[in-house]
């Protein structure tokens, strides 16, 4: 595995980032975003779900308030990564309950994504790993793949995993025939990535303290995902 950015990735000028939830854009590829931002790339961010399922037992933070806060956190995280002015779309699909594939709502979301793809024409698309052990991550990958068919060009596709190392089964990991690994040294921007992770206060702090069963990233997970290296898999095309 090479610990350097691939030349074609470094030369990307139109970068599409697909995040299943607000915070995945930072946890999975914040270092890449910060790196390419410094190189002058343009971005489009797609946040697939509303992120509203993390604290279902909170009375002080009902879903409408939580989802609004998570959007604000995403805006601030992008600012800290150097992409604060980049356009972004919040599809607002229900966290942990995305519509079934090919259902009317699923097709509507794919069409929304497809418009972005067709108009932006990314030369790099960064998606969640196709078998990351979270239903929203897998469904977001399928949705993004369907939308990318709208692109007149064929972008490089990189995939990032959030939960694979902690929760993945052997069959969830990439096979040689489908993807090749790429490791990116993010040492020059790791401080920006860590600051962007900290912007997601609902997921990293006790900001919401009235739901003992609510979700919060633990310190080990944050440490793992904010190391000086980000790992991606470059999807292989049939012609590769």
What do these coordinates show?
- The structure is a single chain.
- With 240 residues, the chain is of the alpha/beta class.
- It has a single domain, classed as LmbE-like (Rossmann fold), CATH 3.40.50.10320.
- Helices cover 38% and strands 18% of the residues.
- The chain contains 10 helices and 7 strands.
- The chain has a 7-stranded mixed sheet with strand order 3-2-1-4-5-7-6, with helices on both faces.
- Strand 4 (124-128), helix 6 and strand 5 (156-160) form a beta-alpha-beta unit.
- It is globular and about 45 Å long.
- The two termini are 18 Å apart.
- The model has no long low-confidence stretch (mean pLDDT 94).
Strands ordered across the widest β-sheet: 3-2-1-4-5-7-6
Beta strand %: 15-25%
- Tally of distinct domains: 1
Whole-number mean pLDDT: 94
Strand count, sense and barrel status of the largest sheet are: 7 strands, mixed
Protein structure class? alpha/beta
Helix and strand layout, with pairings?
Layout: H1 7-10, E1 14-19, H2 24-27, H3 30-38, E2 42-49, H4 63-81, E3 88-93, H5 104-120, E4 124-128, H6 135-148, E5 156-160, H7 164-167, E6 179-185, H8 190-199, H9 201-204, H10 219-225, E7 229-235
Parallel strand pairs: 1-2, 1-4, 2-3, 4-5
Antiparallel strand pairs: 5-7, 6-7
Helix pairs in contact: 4-8, 5-6
């Amino acid at each position: 595995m090479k610990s350097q950015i691939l030349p074609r990735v470094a030369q990307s000028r139109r970068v599409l980032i697909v995040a299943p939830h607000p915070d995945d854009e930072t946890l999975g590829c914040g270092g890449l975003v910060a790196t390419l931002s410094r190189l002058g790339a343009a971005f489009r961010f797609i946040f697939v779900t509303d992120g509203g399922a993390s604290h279902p037992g909170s009375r002080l933070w009902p879903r409408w308030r939580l989802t609004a806060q998570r959007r604000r956190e995403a805006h601030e995280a992008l600012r800290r990564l150097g992409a604060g002015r980049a356009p972004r779309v919040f599809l607002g699909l229900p966290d942990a309950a995305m519509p079934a594939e090919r259902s009317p709502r699923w097709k509507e979301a794919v069409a929304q994504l497809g418009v972005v793809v067709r108009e932006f024409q990314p030369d790099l698309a960064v998606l969640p790993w196709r078998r990351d052990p979270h239903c929203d991550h897998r469904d977001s990958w399928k949705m993004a793949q369907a939308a990318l068919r709208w692109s007149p060009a064929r972008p490089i596709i990189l995939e990032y995993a959030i939960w694979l190392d902690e929760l993945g089964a052997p069959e969830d990991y990439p096979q040689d025939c489908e993807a090749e690994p790429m490791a990116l040294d993010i040492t020059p921007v790791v401080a920006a990535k860590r600051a962007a992770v900290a912007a997601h206060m609902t997921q990293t702090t006790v900001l919401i303290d009235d739901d003992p069963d609510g979700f919060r990233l633990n310190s080990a997970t944050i440490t793992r995902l904010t190391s000086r290296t980000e790992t991606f898999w470059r999807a292989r095309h049939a012609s590769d």
